[in-house]
């Protein structure tokens, strides 16, 4: 008989869109994705707006009886039953909210982008290490079986050494009279919420560059990239289009990461425009069909394939007994559970040192494009009473 799964007790910080999606994934049966070694239990949710918002969240996700609803983040992180906190607030809040949880002794899975700048990322990592806590940036795509297979394929030498990766994660939100369709207050374009294409969407383009060109470098040859960026700013001051070239001179490799708010990677919604990602070596290329954050198909085009392209589908499993829920976020949750079970303080698939290098690249790109964010959200000094933690000005 199989042994009991290791069950992790989750606390959810914030009640917005992705908090709901993630929590629904947590509530799916792991067997629906052929997992039996770990399981998840929802024990609490907190809203900085009100306890009612937290209660309404629990209704929306059809939470089981007994899950606690809190009207403040402080109550959540002080719940002794919570093993790990999922931080699902805007980027602007990640540093203060994650510090709040770490200081209360909680392990943390923090949404992307990890922070607003590299100094904040370093402080989070330093704090987690000092307190012997698990910390991970929630770049869910890295944990897709599709990503695992592609990394293995590249490592096996299937296309030879990868010299170039091109990745795009752009959305077609062009609006009238020079606008984009997001209101200026929306987290996608609002500098007070660390809005902009790069931190929200471009991070996935960088994820593809990093998980191939950086992550797979042998430890003894780890080389951080040189960064060259071009940015168009929106009227709010946030970036609306950002293109970054990363160069790894010792590895003779380069990556091109693109992101934009006015033009979509997938113009017709049917992927007629081709792959979102191209991973290129002298023996061939791997093409990943977008979106870059939630891909479900890749193709292998070998130099000598004579037009015979291998197409590999990797559908995301759903749970028929729970309304066909299943978005693909459960794989990163499973990773957290396995790390906690095994006493690991970080994920080998996205080490904290790598999250820091990615933040350094994004900070450098934003600097080159003269994108600036306010002091309240860029400081690397923790303040439990910050309005970012209390929700009150
Ligand atoms: N992995 C993925 O696929 C995705 C990840 N994300 C990431 O998740 C995070 C949240 O995004 P998303 O859920 O779409 O955002 P939403 O705006 O839908 O939700 C954000 C939540 O954060 C809380 N919050 C606290 N302070 C503020 C504030 N000043 N303004 C707005 N919200 C505030 C609110 O919850 P409350 O009032 O309950 O405290 C709010 O509901 C971002 O970092 C984003 O990059 C987003 C979408 C997809
Ligand atoms: O992480 C994300 O992935 C999906 C996008 O639609 C969203 O804006 C972004 O935050």
TrEMBL record:
Keyword Oxidoreductase: yes
Keyword field: Oxidoreductase
Pfam family, one: GFO_IDH_MocA
Catalytic reactions of this protein: D-xylose + NADP(+) = D-xylono-1,5-lactone + NADPH + H(+)
Keyword Oxidoreductase: yes
GO MF term list: D-xylose 1-dehydrogenase (NADP+) activity; nucleotide binding
Chain ranges of the GFO/IDH/MocA-like oxidoreductase domain: 149-254
Taxonomic superkingdom: Eukaryota
EC number(s) given by UniProt: 1.1.1.179
Similarity annotation: Belongs to the Gfo/Idh/MocA family.
Protein name: D-xylose 1-dehydrogenase (NADP(+), D-xylono-1,5-lactone-forming)
Organism: Anthostomella pinea
Upper taxonomic lineage: Eukaryota, Fungi, Dikarya, Ascomycota, Pezizomycotina
